[in-house]
Design brief:
The protein has about 525 residues and is α/β, with parallel strands linked by helices. It has three domains: about 1-155, Cobalamin-binding domain (Rossmann fold); about 180-410, Alpha-Beta Horseshoe (pyruvate-formate lyase- activating enzyme), CATH 3.80.30; about 420-510, no CATH class. It has 19 helices and 16 strands. The strands form three sheets. The chain has an eight-stranded mixed beta sheet. A six-stranded mixed beta sheet has the order 6-5-4-1-3-16, sandwiched between helices. Helix 3 packs parallel to helix 4, helix 8 packs across helix 9 (about 240-250) and helix 17 (about 435-460) runs antiparallel to helix 18 (about 465-480). The longest helix has 27 residues, at about 435-460. It starts with a strand and ends in an 8-residue tail after the last strand. Bound molecules: iron/sulfur cluster. Iron/sulfur cluster (SF4) binds near residues 187 and 193.
Length: about 525
């Protein structure tokens, strides 16, 4: 039995038959820092779900990440019994072209489509798939191939790669850990919660398991920082989170990771406890002052974010534009309240009625979906695909751009905010007797020349006088904690500035699109993670 699992084909972020230039396969540059220009950190990611399925299904499997279309065809010609394609909704046309190619070149091969794309109504007929997997894919694939759906989870080696920071090309690997899938809160607009049946599906049951995986990754890659991905509400399982903290406290390991957490789940912990369990950044959905979601009831997000910042925890804060309550008169009140929370990163997505969510069902029932807008344009970062009573599509596009720009010019580049928050945390860490926090403070001390140089570089890179003033204030805030930028650090910054300026000039003339690298990963039937 041979299984091929593939993501959609590149190129991405271009206007063509299959894609749109605003549909960028990067978390930061797509939806957090796109309007921050050269300050926008650039990262590429594997298609996590495909690797999880391949590692946990006992057949020979090949995972193809970011192939070109000809590369996909070449792989297909090696002969596979099953081809699985994992995709998001905006890549629908790519999926369709791939399934058509499978049918033509390998008619006996069975086709499975999964990922959020699978929620598109009548997908099997539209793309000619044999099977459509909505929800957790490991059990689905195991059952389809004749194995029991239950499994002892093993974690593949997957992670994201930083490819450019402040205009400097690099390849820096950050291992990822998928501890759970989805979230049980059930917000009406949220694809992940409804995709997984309003459940927080646990893959790693204990904090000890997560800690052991971190230790394995440290041994293998020398990593002490990780991304917890797929788990949309890590703190929804407080016992597991506390056990992870206990492991870190006992070992003194300086592990740190980014994750997601709803305000009600975060409120069950003290900020120091969160830092001691290793959280150094967390995504919080604020949504809107005009729409009270249960998860935010009673939460003072401004105070919470400030308190987390004292312990070095950087917050990615997301708000929704174009709720029905929004009018041209009140929407800036909402955006300004968001900015008043002073997050490290901001997301301002349009309200997005995605197939499979109650919001989509309601909008369809109300006749508000603009069905003539193709799926390629159904992403939340240009124009909406539903009728809003007070905003036209073009007004919505301008509003979103202006919200991101106000965030950038008022609060400064996110990387500069990140450095200040990190420095504040290290000051708190150094005053404790907590082994993991002290270890992280010592590590920061050894690397502070790097952060100080980067901050100075950001000031040099600022072309707008107002922005330069904001970065200078952030630098002074940092210097009050870690000391003034010295001569050596300024020389490093000058070198970095030269490289960053050259990249910026190139990108202005040509393009800032960075296509992800194609990778092929083989998982034999008896695959096991190696230390
Ligand atoms: S809390 Fe966040 S992840 Fe959970 S359902 Fe709501 S929006 Fe989705």
């Amino acid at each position: 039995m041979r299984l091929l699992l593939s993501g959609p084909f590149k190129p991405f972020a271009v206007d063509d038959l299959y894609s749109r230039k605003e549909s960028i396969p990067e978390l930061f540059h797509n939806q957090l820092t796109h309007f921050q220009g050269i300050y926008s950190p650039r990262k590429h990611y594997p298609t996590y779900g495909l690797h999880l399925i391949a590692a946990n299904t006992p057949v020979d499997a090949t995972v193809l990440d970011w192939p070109t279309f000809p590369r996909f065809l070449r792989e297909l010609d090696r002969g596979y019994d099953y081809v699985g394609i994992g995709s998001i909704v905006p890549n629908f046309q790519k999926v369709k072209r791939m399934t058509e190619a499978v049918r033509r070149r390998s008619p006996q091969t069975k086709i499975v489509v999964g990922g959020f794309c699978a929620t598109i109504p009548n997908l099997a007929e539209l793309v000619g798939a044999d099977y459509v997997c909505v929800g957790e894919g490991i059990s689905f694939m195991r059952e389809l191939l004749g194995f029991p759906p239950e499994f002892d989870f093993v974690h593949p080696d997957v992670g994201d790669v930083s490819v450019q920071v402040l205009g400097i090309p690099m390849r820096s690997y950050l291992p990822s850990i998928v501890t759970s899938l989805g979230c049980n809160r059930g917000c009406d607009f949220c694809s992940p919660t409804h995709f997984f049946g309003r459940r927080h599906l646990t893959l790693m049951r204990t904090g000890r398991q997560i800690f052991d995986e971190m230790r394995r990754l440290e041994k293998k890659f020398g990593a002490t920082a990780f991304g917890l991905v797929g788990d949309d509400n890590f703190l929804a399982n407080p016992a597991r989170a506390r056990e992870l903290r206990d492991c870190l406290m006992a070992s003194g390991k300086p592990y740190a990771f980014g994750t997601c957490g709803s305000a009600d789940a975060i409120a069950k912990f003290e900020p120091r406890e969160l830092a001691e369990m290793g959280i150094d950044s967390i995504w919080i959905g604020r949504e809107s002052k005009f729409r009270p979601y249960h998860k935010n009831e009673g939460a003072d997000l401004k105070a919470l974010i400030a308190a987390l910042g004292e312990w070095g925890i950087r917050v990615i804060l997301s708000s929704i534009l174009l709720l029905d309550e929004h009018t041209p008169d009140n929407i800036w009140e909402d955006i300004d309240e968001h900015l008043g929370c002073r997050p490290t990163f901001s997301q301002f997505s349009h309200l997005s009625p995605a197939p499979g969510t109650p919001l989509w069902a309601q909008m369809e029932a109300d006749g508000r979906l603009l069905n003539s807008i193709p799926y390629e344009e159904c992403h939340a970062f240009k124009q909406p695909w539903f009728v809003h009573p007070r905003f036209s599509l073009l007004e919505a596009e301008r509003l979103q751009r202006d919200a991101y720009l106000r965030d950038f010019y008022t609060l400064g580049p996110s990387l500069a905010r990140l450095i200040v928050t990190t420095a504040r945390g290290m000051k708190s860490f150094a005053r404790t007797d907590s082994p993991p926090l002290l270890a992280r403070a010592r590590r920061f001390e050894r690397r502070k020349w790097f952060y100080k140089s980067a901050m100075y570089d950001m000031e040099l890179l600022a072309e707008d006088p107002g922005l330069r003033g904001v970065v200078r204030e952030l630098r002074e805030e940092m210097e009050a904690i870690v000391g003034p930028v010295n001569g050596f650090e300024k020389i490093v910054a000058a070198g970095a500035y030269t490289l960053g300026s050259a990249t910026r000039a190139y990108q202005r003339v040509f393009s800032d699109v960075l296509q992800p690298r194609t990778t092929v990963t083989h998982y034999p039937a008896d695959w096991k993670p190696r230390p």
